Amino acid sequence: MATWQGSNGGLLAGIGGVNSNAPSVNDIGNTLQLIRQNNDIERSGANNVGLTALQGLSGIAGVFQQEKQAQRQKEFQQAYANAYASGDRGALRQLATQYPDQIESVRKGMGFIDEDQRNSIGTLAAGARLASSSPEAMQSWLQNNAGELARVGVNPQDVAQMYQQNPRQFGEFVDHLGMNSLGPEKYFDLQDKMQGRQVAMRGQDLDSQTAARNQAITMRGQDIQANLGQQRINLDAETNRINNENKRLDRMLSAETNDLKRQEIQSRIAANNQQLQQKQQALNDGYKDGINTLTTSMFTLNDIVSSPSLKSITGLRGVIPNVPGSQAADTQARLDTFKSQAYLTAVQAMRGMGALSDAEGKKLDQAVGSLQNSQSEESFRRNAGVILNTLNQKRNEAVGKYVQQNGIKRVEAPQASIDYLKQHPELSIDFINRYGYLPSLGQ
Known about the structure:
This protein has 18 helices and no strands. By secondary structure, the protein is mainly α. The longest helix is centred in the middle third of the chain and has 48 residues, at 259-306.
């Protein structure tokens, strides 16, 4: 009787070694695994057609849900990138309302230990962004915050090295870190609070400045209440009166034969003419002052809008103090000058010419009040355009009255003269006297 020999396993193994098609020990293990899987599938009901169909539908729904989530994540990432690239703080703030799930997902993914660490890192990021404006400011910030950085597990030396390697990328990094830690709205509010600005950018309160300066500003030493429109009406009436008076004197002169009386009449006519010329000159001087004031204000604003460093004083970069002596700092100084001086004198000039209604004045005030560093470059340009268009319109009206008053004919100026005028706006009146108009200035 044949008995089982343990060596038979060796034989099977040997056969397997010789014939690759023969079963091997591995084949047995694989077969057993397949059997176990089959049993599991059977118990799960996979061979049940109805159950399989339901599971299939559930799987499809899951895929759709995943695709929907992926699409929303993609939309959020694109919206975030666009808003950050444009420097539009308002758009970044709105993301928290539009995509609260995505903001929360990113925040959870950052792996903060607790709320204290999250708030601390967000606060440090806001401070680091403000300090990144200059190496000196960053060095001071690192010294003052070394302990807090260490407390949240950040090496101050690593921060210093990151900043030294690429200050711009460092600024962008802490922006993303801060916004994702605190949310865009709280992050920007915290920056504003750190700078002591909140509502008034850079410590300026435009409304109070406007109210104060409106009481004190005079235009080239003249009383701003002197309305050129009323002066023109008065001049027209005075011109008619003097002309009628001179006609009467001319008739008397023709009939008079006494030389002394003739001289007296001629002196009265000459005095009337001189008086009229003085009034005409006063009106002309008023228009000249108004035109020059508007031109100065327009060129100040146009220089700001045309400056390559505009992007450095608006949007996300606009919340950071600019390095003294830099082009951005110069542009910021021009903006401050425009809002606190040039604009207000322009308003007084327009009111002096009787050319600005209350509604137009409110519209201008709103546009100037919107010239804030926190808005995007696009929004800044849009508001500046509203102001420039209004100033252009009012200046053209003043030029038209001046030209009419002096009987100047319009002649198209050569481009070379226009280009030269742009470089020398102080020659505006000379340009008008020669060509009878001024070219518009704007974007």
